[in-house]
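Reopening: structure tokens for the MU-OXO-diiron complex, inputs below.
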Amino acid sequence: MMISKQMENALNKQISLEAYASYLYLAMAAWCDRKGLEGCKEFLLKQSDEERVHMLKIFHYISEVDGKAIAPEIKQPPEEFETVTAVFETLYKHEQEVTSAIHELVDLSYKEKDYTTLNFLQWYVEEQREEEALARSILDKINLIGDSPQSLYFIDLELQKISSGSGD
Ligand code: FEO
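Re-run output (same inputs, fresh job):
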């Protein structure tokens, strides 16, 4: 089975988006580190690793279907963020972009009757649902606690719990 050139390009574009997510979350982790937010940093480092895994899954898939996978240039993510709320709003926004990109890939696989790729993409559809839900629940918690200097300790504690798997 071979994928079309158009599908190959679209999947390579997705590699680029996942790679950027990995870099963006790494930059966010660095910002949190500078602010002394250890829990947030741990969470973002873990997310950054997950994005690399997402990227590699596509990379391997392309080569399995006899396509040409590329290692794209990654644009520089921002280094500074206004607040911890801004960090997680940016993360949520990026996840929404990734979701719509995945949905476009699903559309293309339907259009091309490429059922192998369609099947491959199901994992991403589910993953995006989970990631958006997680990002939303974090933003809800931050909005509840507030991001004043006094609240940061509690936000950080929450993120620590989530990244160690003991969050709800
Ligand atoms: Fe791989 Fe969070 O999108």
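The two ends are 42 Å apart (CA to CA). Residues 18, 21, 51, 54, 95, 98, 131 surround MU-OXO-diiron (CB under 6 Å). Marking as resolved unless the reporter disagrees.
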